[in-house]
Every structure is written in structure tokens, then in C-alpha cells.
Amino acid sequence: MHGEPNDASRNNDIDRPEHEFPDESRTTRTHAGESIEDTRNWPGIILFGIGIALVALTLTAAGYGFAGWAVIAGIACVLCLLMGSVLVIAEHRQVKHQEGLGLSEPRGH
Description:
It is built from three helices and no strands. It is mainly α.
């Protein structure tokens, strides 16, 4: 019981209403959380996640000997992974272009 802090001694900096995203006082990157904050990235992230799930389905179908389903799932997997990557990279390039920075700019990500 001696080491327990009471309510008055707790640090409530995070609970303050003025705490907003992004937390510029604790991050050095210019766009920390850009992929989540920018809702235009979500379709690409979702497609990429579906592509990862389709990898598992492809391997399962191939393991059980369903060659036709493995081919269909493999094609869908490649398409989802490619389209998801293209969408995320295209949106990231658009954000960098609006700021006048190159995609390989060392500041930010």
C-alpha cells in the first residue's frame, strides 16, 4: 500500500482535452500516423489486408489439393496486394507532392 499513488499525484497529461493528434511535442517525424489519419489510404490498406488473407487461402487450397481454387485465390491475392500497394503509394506521393517534397525525402517518412 505504500507505493500506490493517489489520484492527486497521477499524471493526467493524456486525459486533458487539449491533447490532440498529432502529438508534435513527442514526435520528430512530420507525418507520424499519416496512413491511419489520412482516410484516403484506407482502401489500399484494406485491399492489402485482404491480399494477406488470400495468401493463407491460396496455401490452404494448394495444400488440400484444390488446384483450381488455389489458382483463383492466387490471382486474387496478387491483384489485391498490387492494387493495395499502388493505392497507398499513390496517396503517399500525393501528400509529399502537396508539400513539395520527394518520396525519398529523409524528413518524415
